Structure formats: structure tokens, C-alpha cells
Amino acid sequence: MKRFGDLAPSLRTIMTPGPVEVDPRVLRAMSFPILGQFDPEFTAIMNETMEMLRELFQTKNKWAFPVDGTSRSGIEAVLTGLIEPGDKVLIPIYGRFGYLLQEIAQRCGAEVVTITKPWGSVFEPAEVIEALDLHQPDLLAIVHGETSTGRVQPLAEIGKACRQRDILIAVDAVATIGGVPVETDAWCLDAVIGGAQKCLSVPSGMAPVTYNERVERKLLARKRVEAGLQSGTEVPDENRRPIIQSNYLDLSQLQDYWGPQRLNHHTEMTSMLYALREGLRLVLEEGLEERFARHRLHEKALVAGLAAMGLDFYGDESCKLTVVTCIAIPEGIDGESVRSMLLDRFGIEIASSFGPLKGKIWRIGTMGFSCNQKNVLHLLGALEAVLIRHGHSLPAGAALQAALEIYEGG
Amino acid sequence: MKRFGDLAPSLRTIMTPGPVEVDPRVLRAMSFPILGQFDPEFTAIMNETMEMLRELFQTKNKWAFPVDGTSRSGIEAVLTGLIEPGDKVLIPIYGRFGYLLQEIAQRCGAEVVTITKPWGSVFEPAEVIEALDLHQPDLLAIVHGETSTGRVQPLAEIGKACRQRDILIAVDAVATIGGVPVETDAWCLDAVIGGAQKCLSVPSGMAPVTYNERVERKLLARKRVEAGLQSGTEVPDENRRPIIQSNYLDLSQLQDYWGPQRLNHHTEMTSMLYALREGLRLVLEEGLEERFARHRLHEKALVAGLAAMGLDFYGDESCKLTVVTCIAIPEGIDGESVRSMLLDRFGIEIASSFGPLKGKIWRIGTMGFSCNQKNVLHLLGALEAVLIRHGHSLPAGAALQAALEIYEGG
Asked: The complex's ipTM?
């Protein structure tokens, strides 16, 4: 039976906004034999992971654990737990992933109010605060780092304004966690969702979330113990708020599984948890501040190189997201042909974008393990060669010199 | 920073109904560097996985792919896609996981009708067919292998009866897929959900599903393209059936991601997919029939050994699930103390059970990679020693002799 060959993926330099390359230590962690889900060694690993996640999210929250799914499973878990049908949800939209928040909130039965900014920019905090006062929503849901446009939305003022008004705020920090500061407690964020396969550099498959007791109160009011596990002492349903519409993503049940009660829900993703734990160890060993500085350094070198090549950057510079750099595809160049040649000849992957930006910009990620000097220099040299190959005129050799200037302390 | 040590899980003999031990080839597959999600090498891996899943499910269905989550994510994806609010769903319940189907269906807004059997037995097909005629549901949702009680529900007649009546049938085959026959097409099953961490012996994290065009028609009538990805040519919402209430588990969007359109949804779980692909290769290399026969052989040896030890089996023998063997905890023995000693002294894990069976039975799995002669013999010897240690009187030495008789062809 040789119809399906041995797995033999090519080695890639992955410079997209995720998924990105994975540290060999994390890859190795996944190759360990598994433990049973209630094995004391495994529940200890679950507890250690929660402890490390609190540091990552910069929070003293009791609850910080991964939802077992890709990033949007964490977003949906938070929104479906917080939104009861008819709740008013304010969503500021400045790129694709704002629309995703809208879509999920609508499916949860929310009355959604959106405010929008042209793609490539973000909101002034005052604009969002004004909308809070105008619409008085139950929940504000907002994207921190928008990978579709490469922008970052400042959240400190918005978070505090929500707290003052007793409005819950849920933040999609999928693209930013582990790469740029996400200060859950200092910014008064009630629920935050991080991503695994971006700045944490763990393979896609888990969505770390954290939430505080304001969120937990809301969840507990909607909680049901699973029918097949009930002990007969539960409070009757009629005294509860409407049930959470997903069982798989029900945070009120998930926290009983992650808490000391260990009430069976799903079977925890053993190997993915090994990977997440190792990825978190790497983050904490490096140090959050040092990690953020590393991301800034390589962004600086990349941007210097691209500028020296004469390429135009997309979007408002004042709100550029450190870990995603967007460049306009030059006039007359076929963006997909450039991406294919980069992949086929140089083994480098960069990204295109979505919706209105499809075919107009390239997006280059400098995230996590992929964010290093070798990758940045490799990419700049390759992109220059491929652009020349596509007939684009540019100052040959300038990009790498400009980037080296940065690395040599220029 | 040495607060969190190197990952160093103990090696366990895992004889539970899942998660079970993982073949080193599958563990190795997860340690390969990752590819980007739209890398042609990766989409080829996605396609190969679909092809192998069709063989596993014994179907010619177009759609067979993993949902990115643990088993119940696949169940919820199927139910939330098939159930519109107010739809009538019939659920025959004969153990814990029937209640899970009920709970998920209720959260989808179904009018749920249940019929129940005492735990430890299953339904006569005629009983279910009578209920179909009495209640005339839109959907029948039923568990194939109930791990909580170790029973298997025959489905061939029930599936055909549903087809004759134009009622959809969705089957939870989480515990059975890859261990006992699941004949999707021959039994006229419209949607089937398999499990990764049981007889497939892949770590928990993916839920393979398959469904036919009857299901697809229902999904397409409810489909929406994600707001941030719309091209402006979509059919207006008002002409559609009610939207699927989950975005993450929306099969109508997932099939656009798994299909040639490759419309971005989540970021596929790279390393988990590597694992699933390798796990499927192992299944097909062994051969489905040979694999089923292996599961029967080791069950026979285990049962012979336990019987020789004088232990009582739980449940109706005529519907025993090959891959889970349930035994009554003997009078006066503390079941959890026995389980702890098995784990701490012998590195063997067996399971307790849920709800009304908690504290009353042990459940021993013989699934996938864990289902082998070494494990069965190791377990029987260890269980005998631990029971003697707990003051239980039994014919010492008989269990291993009885099992060896089976392996020697007795």
C-alpha cells in the first residue's frame, strides 16, 4: 500500500502573518508519548500551562486556559458565552477580522452595532468612547492587531472607558499576543483571546483565552452541567439565564474541566498542549519585554530594506502593527506570480490579503520564531531578485545594505 | 527561568476507552516542520487526508474531512448544521453520549424527542423504527459505540429505515471508527462523526466527519460567505434558510476551505493534520478487515483472562462493544484505589465511568495502537496482583494462562 507516501514536507521560510515557523523544541514536545487526560502528570501540565498563560496575558485572572480549536474557536467561545440573544454588542471594524467578530456576534443572536474606519487606519480612542456613550452596548468586541491590514488598535483608554461604564470588553489579540504588549489587567480588558500560530509560534490548534470574574459571573448565570454527568443536585434550569448555544465552546463547562473539579468535557488535546506548554516556556525564558524588543528590531530592519528597494508601504504609519508589514504591489506586477516564485525558487512564503485588498498588497509577517535576522535578510535578497525577474526596476543591492545597517546598530 | 521544567511525561500503558497510546510513526509526523496553510504541498496533504478518510468511513461521499477540534466538535458541527430551530430530532439514549447528543441538539434549538434504554443494553432496530413512525422527526441522531457502558448499537436496519422515510440520520461513531465496522454507505448513514484518540490512535484534536449530498443540500440552503470575504455576488440572506449558529463549526464554510475553492476559514491545524494523515496511512496499510480482526482477537484474550480471574462483566453480552470491556468492581473493593495502584506501580491506566455507573464499573479499552498482546497480558498480570493486594480472593495465575490459550490459538 504505497499510494500515500511518507510525510516529507519541504523546509520553508514562513514570513506570513501566520502560521509561522515553529521552534524545534516545540516540534519535539509533540513527539513525546501521550498521557491520559486525568493522569496526575497530565493535569499538572494543564495547571502549569494556565500559570504560564497568566504571565503571557499579564493578568492575575483565575482563568487562563486554551480553548481546543484554532484561534476563532477562542473568539467564538468568548462571544457565545458573553452574548445572550438580544444583547447589544458594539463592534468597531477596521479590517477583515472586525467583520468576523460581527459575524460571530450576529450568530449568537446579538443586536450588533458597528462603527467602521477605512481599512489601513484604526480608531481614535475618543471615537470608540463616543460610540459607547451613544449606543450603550452590553459588550464591546474589538480586534487588537488586524492582520488583514497590518494595523494595531490602542486599547488602554478604551478598556478603562468600558470599565467606568460597566460595559464588558472582549479583545481579539490573536495576532499580537507574545509579539507586542497585551496588558490584560492594566488596560482593564475583561476577556482576551490569543493565537497560537502567530507570535507564540506554536502550530495552529489551540486558542488561549483569559477572562476575569466579571465575565465569569455572566457565564455562571448561564451554566448547565451536562445531562449525562448531572448528580441530581443542580439548580433548576428555570432559575438561569439562557443557556450558552454551544456545548463544545461553553466556557462555563470548560472552566470546570480546567479547574480542580476536573469535570469531564472533551478529551484535552494532549500533543497540542505539550506544544503550547513548550511554546510558553520559550516565551517566558526569553522574557516578554525582550521578545517585544526583538519583534521591533526585525521589523525595523525589514522596513529599512523594503524602503531601500523603493517599495511603497500600505496603511497609516502611526498605527502600524509591528509584526505585519504591508506593501503595495507595484504597478504592472502580478502579485501572485511573485509569491509563487518566492515559494518555488527560494522556499519563502509571504501572504496576499483579503476582500478589498486582494491583489493589491503583500503582507510580510515577522512573528515569533520566524522573526529573526536570517529570515529577514533571506527574504529581502529573494524579493529583490524576484522583482527584478518580473521586470521591476529597483536599486539592486540596496535592500540588504539597509537592513545590515540596522543590524549593525545603525 | 527554570520554574517550568523540561517536558518529561512517563511512559504509560493506556487501556482506557481513549485517549490511547499513539504509534511512534504518528508522534514523529508531528515533529516535522510546518508548511503554510495554502502551500501547495499542504493542500495536497489535505486532499490525501480526505481520500483516506473516505476509505476509513467506507463511503463514496465527496465530503470527508476533519473538523478542527476534539470529537464533540465534530458532533456539534454536524448537528448545528443539520438542525434548524424547531426541527424535530429523535435521539435514542442508552448511555452518557446519547445525553450529549440531546444536550447539543437542544442548544441548537431542536424539539428533541428521546427514547431510552437501561444503561448496559441497546435498542432493537424495530424499537427505533417504531419511534421514527410515531414521531416523524426531521433527524435521527444516535450513538454507534457507547463508551460509557461498552455497548454497540446495530445501525444497518435503522439507517435503511431512515432513508425509506426520508429522515436524515447522523451517527456518533467516535468510539468505533477504525476499530469495528462503520459502513457509511451500505448502512445509509447521512452523516458520521469519527474520533481521533480512540481506535485511530491519533492524539485528541481532530474530529473526522463525512456526509452525503442529502446533508450538503441542507447545509447549502443555510450558507453565508463570511462578511469579510464577500465578493458582492452572493445571494441575499432573505432567500436563505436560518443561518448556522456557529461560525467555527459551520460545515458549509468548512467545505469551501477543504474544497478546490480554498476559501479561508480557520488556519488548519498543521501538526494535527500530519498526525491524522499518518494515523490513516497506518490504518490503510493494516487493512480495515485485518484491523477489525485484531481488535476482536485482543478482546477475546482480555475477556478470557478477566473471566478466569472470576470477575463479573457489566451489561448485555449480545451488544458488547469489541473495543471496551466493562467489569463490575467487586464488592468491598475501592475502585479508585485499584486504579491508582495500577497507575502508580505498573504505569497502566484503566477507566472508571460516569453518572449512574460511577464507582460501580471499570472500563478497559482495547483500541488502536493500545490494542496488542503485550498490553493485554501486562494488564491482566497487573490487575491480578493489585486485586490480591486489595484483599480480593481469586485463582492466582489463571488469568494469564487463559489469555495465553487464546493467543496460542485455543
From this structure: 0.96
